[in-house]
UniProtKB/TrEMBL annotation:
<protein>
    <submittedName>
        <fullName>Uncharacterized protein</fullName>
    </submittedName>
</protein>
Amino acid sequence: MEASINGGPLKRFSFYTHVDALGVSSKVAKEAGLRAVAKQKIEAFGDVIWLYYGVLDSFKLGGIELRNIPVGWSERESGGEVAPEAHDGMIGTWVFYHFLSTSTTRAGR
C-alpha cells in the first residue's frame, strides 16, 4: 500500500504483523528528516546494525492521517540498508490496532 511520510511523496509500504510499530528504510528516514530519540547497536546478519527509534510527525494512508507516532529504522554500521529495497517500510500491528475493524457481511446471507 502507499502512504505519505511528513507530507512527502507517496512511499511503498508492506503490512507485517511481526513488526510492532511503523518501520521505514534509512533512506526514507533521512528524506523525512527523522531524528532518533534512542538508538541500539546489535549484531545480526554477520554485521553490526544500528536500530534507531523516533517520532514521526505525520503518516497519511489515503484520507487518514496519523500524527506523532513511533517509528523505527535501521542501517548497517558498514553502510547500506538492512532490509531489501522491495518497499520503503513496513506497517506494524501498532498502527492498525488503532482502527475499528468491521465486517461487510450480514448474518443470514
